[in-house]
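Support request from a user on the community tier.

User writes: "When I paste my C-alpha cells into the form, the page sometimes reloads and wipes my input. The last time it worked, I copied everything first. Here is what I submitted, just in case something in the input itself triggers the reload:"
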C-alpha cells in the first residue's frame, strides 16, 4: 500500500494496484488471473518491508505490461484459446507485450497515445499516428457533424457486437454508434465553450 497512480480512481491515491486478466465469451466473462504490481523502489528493493508483507524473495519487479504478458502466456499454455486480446494505453504502448502476442499468433486491439509510433508484424510494418495539429485541448479541427474518435469502450462495444451479434443488424448498430458519437461531439463542443467562457481574462 502506498500513494501511486491508479486507473480506477484516475489519480494518485493510497492504494494497491493489480493487473487482472479477464476471459470473455458469448456466455459471459470472468477474471481468470491476477498479479499484484509492486513499485520498484519503495517495495522491491526494501527487504524488511517485503518480509513484513510476506512477499517471497523470488518475486522481482515487473512492469504492468510484463505482468499482463506473463498471465496471457500462462493462460495460452494452459490451453485457453483466445482469438484476440484488448487493453488500454498502459499496455498498448509496450512493444514487448505486442511482440509476445504476435509471437503467439494472437490478435490484439490496444489503445496507444497519438505520440506513439507503433511497428507491428515484428517491426516490418510502421503505423503512423495522426499528427497532433494543435496543443490547445480546446481547439478542434473536425467538421461540425463529424463524430468523436472511436474510444476504447466504443471499440469493445463494437467488437462485442461482431462476436456476439444482437437481434438487430450490424448496420443498425453501426448507425447507432455514429449517431451517439455525433451527439458526443456536440456535448464536447458545448463543454469546451463553457470552460473557455469561465476562464479568467487577465
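"...and here is what came back when it finally went through:"
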Amino acid at each position: 500500500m502506498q500513494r501511486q497512480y491508479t486507473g480506477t480512481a484516475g489519480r494518485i491515491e493510497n492504494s494497491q494496484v493489480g493487473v487482472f486478466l479477464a476471459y470473455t465469451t458469448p456466455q459471459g466473462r470472468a477474471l481468470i488471473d491476477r498479479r499484484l504490481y509492486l513499485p520498484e523502489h519503495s517495495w522491491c528493493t526494501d527487504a524488511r518491508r517485503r518480509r513484513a508483507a510476506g512477499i517471497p524473495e523470488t518475486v522481482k519487479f515487473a512492469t504492468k505490461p510484463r505482468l499482463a504478458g506473463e498471465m496471457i502466456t500462462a493462460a495460452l499454455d494452459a490451453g485457453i484459446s483466445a482469438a484476440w486480446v484488448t487493453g488500454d494505453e498502459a499496455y498498448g504502448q509496450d512493444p514487448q507485450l505486442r511482440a509476445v502476442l504476435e509471437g503467439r499468433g494472437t490478435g490484439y486491439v490496444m489503445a496507444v497515445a497519438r505520440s506513439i509510433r507503433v511497428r507491428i508484424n515484428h517491426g516490418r510494418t510502421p503505423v503512423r499516428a495522426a499528427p497532433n495539429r494543435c496543443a490547445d485541448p480546446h481547439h478542434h479541427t473536425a467538421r461540425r457533424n463529424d463524430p468523436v474518435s472511436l474510444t476504447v469502450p466504443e471499440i469493445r462495444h463494437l467488437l462485442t457486437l461482431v462476436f456476439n451479434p444482437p437481434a438487430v443488424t450490424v448496420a443498425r448498430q453501426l448507425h447507432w454508434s455514429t449517431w451517439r458519437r455525433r451527439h458526443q461531439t456536440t456535448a464536447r463542443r458545448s463543454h469546451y465553450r463553457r470552460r473557455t467562457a469561465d476562464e479568467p481574462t487577465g
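Agent notes: The reload is a front-end session timeout and is unrelated to the input. The mean pLDDT is 77. The CA atoms of residues 22 and 31 lie 4 Å apart. Escalated to web team.
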